[in-house]
Specification:
With 271 residues, the chain is α+β, with helices and mostly antiparallel strands. Helix content is 16%, strand content 44%.
């Protein structure tokens, strides 16, 4: 209460002095100094009314696993916490008032999937069984008897499949070959490219299919056209931008594939 009165008083003085200056058109050095002093005092009071929260700006979370989002306090934040975690679209993830979870205010997407723990050092939100749809920005706001604090964290959700990539060989209308590399279970959309064993990019590649399943995971097929060369290694690469990891598969086309038919190249998946 005292802080609020001080703030109102200082702002009133600032506004009053500013009005006098406009009426009298006298911008003396002393009045300018008084005005600046009021502004500085007001800012100091505003800062004193809050507290700092220190969080990682980005946290990576694997689909299906639990993730902890922890923010540290910059000192004693007082008691009687009012805490709310919500998404950037204001969807409520978890809310606490007077030490009790406000389950009725929580969005259905997070029912029985969140927990909050608070101690002197900080606050932790546990998000269980991460889903693709959990990807995004999370805002934390805390109100106590010592003031307010707020911050935000970006949750980067990712998934990389554990199954092998599949390369399919098909004849092309122009007497060439069309290789199709397919993989399922990615999030977000992966980067796909082809190379030969010397590291050269294979041109004329294009995405054939890109779709999401009911869980939001991507299935991708990627094509490349080439002339028949049965001694060349063809390497398909899928890369996750979030995890900076690459999954690749290589195969050698042999003479047995010199036919108008479908065939599969089997190789090792490298992480």
């Amino acid at each position: 209460m005292i802080t609020c009165l001080m703030l109102c008083s200082s702002l009133g003085v600032c506004l009053g002095r500013s009005t006098i200056q406009r009426k009298n058109s006298q911008k003396t050095s002393s009045r300018r100094m008084a005005f600046l002093s009021c502004v500085v005092l007001s800012l100091i009071i505003l800062i004193a009314d809050g507290f700092n929260l220190h969080c990682e700006q980005e946290i990576k979370a694997e689909v299906g696993k639990d993730v902890l989002i922890t923010c540290e306090f910059g000192g004693d934040i007082g008691g009687d916490h009012f805490v709310i975690w919500q998404r950037s679209d204001d969807l409520i993830v978890h809310k606490i008032k007077h030490g009790k979870d406000q389950i009725n205010d929580q969005h259905a997407n997070y029912t029985e999937r969140t927990e909050i723990s608070i101690n002197k050092e900080g606050i932790t939100l546990t998000l269980k069984k991460v889903r693709v749809w959990d990807d995004g920005i999370y805002k934390l706001s805390i109100s106590t008897d010592k003031g307010l604090g707020d911050t935000s964290v970006t949750l980067l959700v990712w998934a990389i499949p554990t199954k092998d990539l599949v390369i399919t060989l098909n004849p092309d209308k122009s007497d060439g070959l069309k290789l199709t590399c397919s993989s399922q279970g990615w999030y977000p959309e992966p980067i796909v490219f082809w190379k030969d064993k010397f590291g050269n990019d294979l041109k004329d590649s294009e995405i054939k299919t890109l779709e999401q399943d009911s869980k939001g995971l991507y299935r991708v097929e990627h094509n490349v056209k080439t002339v028949p060369d049965y001694k060349v290694h063809y390497i398909c690469h899928f890369k996750s931008e979030v995890m900076k990891r690459r999954v690749s598969m290589s195969g050698v086309i042999s003479g047995e594939f010199n036919c108008k038919c479908y065939a599969y190249l089997k190789g090792n998946v490298n992480y």
